[in-house]
Amino acid sequence: MRWTQDPSTTASQADVTVYKAFQSKYPEFTRWFNHIASFTEEFSSLPAGTAPAAAAEEEDEDDVDLFGSDDDEEVDEAAEKLKQQRLAEYNAKKAAKGPKPAAKSIVTLEVKPWDDETDLEELLANVKAIEMDGLTWGGSTWVPVGYGIKKLQITVVVEDDKVSLDALQSQIEEDEDHVQSTDVAAMQKL
């Protein structure tokens, strides 16, 4: 906006009042403030002018909050109370349902012996001797691989949160006299 009038005739005491109020609360209005500040020496001699009444400006100033205010804290507190209330309702509803059943998986493991002279019944007994919380051994079968060697296929049901398949395989493979390696042949969630 470009001033077309003589600036010395456009400022008034009302401008001074508004200038001081805005300068303290809204420093972003520097252009207008700088214009009015150019009359600092003449503030007491400026004419009354037709600017809005300073009292009305001060009352409206509280209503129009362009840059946020302390009222945001009240809104934040209300939002936090609502959040806490909803969390409490959610937790109560969740507790009323009771615990979910444990997630389980059916796994088919392949256990490969070292050679055709490995005692397969002892290998099976050693595998089934492994006990873990959440582990249930199922049926087993011998599958021919070739050259007279058979591998053990054994089904196991595991609780996913309690039994790590990697740990189970490592424990089976600790039987170095009988077990060459293990693999997961199949896995299905229950």
Specify the overall morphology: rod-shaped
Structural class: alpha+beta
Low-confidence region ranges: none
How many strands in all? Answer: 4
Question: Considering DSSP H and I runs of 4 or more, what fraction of the residues is helical?
Answer: 40-55%
Rg to the nearest angstrom?
42 Å
CA(first)-CA(last) distance = 74 Å
Alpha plus pi helix count: 6
Roughly what is the average pLDDT, rounded to an integer?
81
Largest sheet: 4 strands, antiparallel
Strand order of the largest sheet: 2-3-1-4
Order of helices and strands: HHHHEHEEHE
| Beta-strand proportion | 15-25%
Question: What's the layout of helices and strands?
Answer:
Layout lengths: L12 H13 L4 H8 L16 H10 L7 H27 L6 E10 L6 H9 L6 E12 L2 E11 L5 H9 L5 E11 L1
Antiparallel strand pairs: 1-3, 1-4, 2-3
Helix pairs in contact: 1-2
Characterization of this structure:
- There is one protein chain.
- This protein is an alpha+beta fold.
- 40% of the residues lie in helices and 23% in strands.
- The chain has 6 helices and 4 strands, in the order ααααβαββαβ.
- The protein has a 4-stranded antiparallel sheet with strand order 2-3-1-4, covered by helices on one side.
- A hairpin with a 2-residue loop joins strand 2 (135-146) and strand 3 (149-159).
- Helix 1 (13-25) crosses helix 2.
- It is rod-shaped.
- Keywords: Elongation factor, Protein biosynthesis.
- Belongs to the EF-1-beta/EF-1-delta family.
